[in-house]
Amino acid sequence: MPIQITQLVKSYGLWLFLLTVALPVYAAPLVVGHISFVKGSNAAQQPGGTPRILGKDTEIFQGDNIQTTERSFVIVEFTDGAKITVRPNSNFSIDHYDSQSANKTAQLVLHQGGVNTSTGDIAKAHPENFQIKTPTSTVKPESEKAEFTVRICDKDCEDKGKEAAANAVRTEQSVVARVVDIKGEVSAINRADKNAKERPLSLGKPVYNADSIHSEKDSYALLVFPDGEKVTLQANSELDIKQYNYQIKDKKDQVLLRLTTGGLRALTGSIGKNNHDAFALDTPVATIGIRGTGTDTSTDGVNLDHSTWQGLSFLHNEAGEFDVPEGSSSSTFGQNGIPQIYPTPPNAPQPSEPRPDTNKSDPKKVFEEKSATKGDTVVKSTSGNTAVENNKGEKNTVNEGETGSANSNGEITSEQSDNTTADNPSGSGSSFDDADNSLEGCTI
């Protein structure tokens, strides 16, 4: 039989009754994970609470702020299967973590240092619902399963980045072109890597040796190369970067492109101007050489249409070599076909894609070595794609194998990662078992 309030007051006095009904009831914080690995001295703290020393199997709660010291780190395993390494000298908060309700969400904050992240069920259901905020950006996976590193660059990172940028040397693995204008859907895949995945291109994205670039309907991409060459890949086209060498030690400068299908508008850079034989555009019908020029080329694999709007170009196939002077066009059928060369009609229809010489991008600035500065957010995608959104709401995708950064000015850049960095010394696999997990400088 329930005790009546009047009985309670009579038995224990009014003061006890008032104390009973007035005491607030505090709900225990929500358990969101546990520590699966720990090294060194690390602590977690609830708002207004006392710090808790973290050891293996220690529970982690929603609202926890985790701090690590020098040469120390912890791996947090969350209830949805996600894993996060809080790296040395880091400050990291779990603002909200809900893996149980219908609308699963994770709101995490990196205040200082860095974290390695492997997503779980929250990102699998809705990748955009898993977010790591920093002072300059918000980082979200764009794949159901993603592994990525988020770092806030400190003074040491800045100094090492500047040193790396100053000592940078071009190699065959360096960026060979960047997108300076784009419309629609254009993608690239590296044919030299059998495990490579197709990656979407966007403004500022890099292109590498052995990349095959494909454009969809109503799409194009304008590329700038370090020697100043500019190429517009037209819609419904495929272009292979067979070989591009420029200022590489012990190698001759060379440009070898292959237009498999579709159209290409090209403006020669210093490589072709200094050595005409160093440039070649291959097609299924003929190879196109230049004498320092601007050209338009299109092919369906059998027919070849080619025109020269600046300088002099020539066609070479099994029938011989044929000059196409400035202001002239040609049509060729088959590898044995003799080109029909004629003055380009004044009213000849022009491609809708921009001619490359209309773009005024300075190659020196486009390919200037950049390093992250203190306070920048640096993101490296090791598996899957990751989105970096700056505080202006502008977004850039860091594709698998790339490193990107966002600074306080809202500028976002991306670059291919070196897979043998301190993040991943073995060059493969996960970094969650690294015994070091030290923060290193980063060059973008």
The radius of gyration computed from the alpha-carbon positions, rounded to a whole number of angstroms, is 29 Å
* Low-confidence segments: 1-21, 419-444
Kindly state the number of beta strands.
Answer: 35
Q: How many domain units?
A: 2
Mean pLDDT across all residues, rounded?
87
Beta-strand residue percentage:
35-45%
- What CATH architecture label of the largest domain applies? Sandwich
What is the top-level CATH class of the largest domain? Mainly Beta
Secondary structure category: mainly beta
Count the helices. How many? 6
User: How would the global form be characterised?
Assistant: elongated
Largest sheet report: 17 strands, mixed
Q: What name does CATH use for the topology of the largest domain?
A: Jelly Rolls
Terminal residue distance: 73 Å
The portion of residues assigned to helices is under 10%
Question: How would you describe this protein?
Answer:
With 444 residues, the protein is mainly β. It folds into two domains: 29-168 and 373-444, Jelly Rolls; 170-365, Jelly Rolls (Sandwich). A hairpin with a 5-residue loop joins strand 34 and strand 35. Helix 1 (5-12) packs across helix 2 (14-22).
What layout of secondary structure does this protein have?
Elements (H helix, E strand, L loop, with lengths): L4 H8 L1 H9 L8 E9 L2 E4 L6 E2 L5 E3 L3 E4 L4 E6 L4 E4 L4 E8 L6 E8 L1 E5 L2 H5 L4 E4 L3 E5 L5 E6 L2 H12 L8 E9 L2 E5 L8 E2 L5 E3 L2 E5 L4 E5 L5 E4 L4 E8 L8 E14 L2 H5 L4 E4 L4 E4 L3 E6 L3 E8 L1 E6 L2 E6 L2 E6 L6 E4 L19 H4 L10 E7 L2 E5 L4 E4 L3 E5 L5 E5 L28
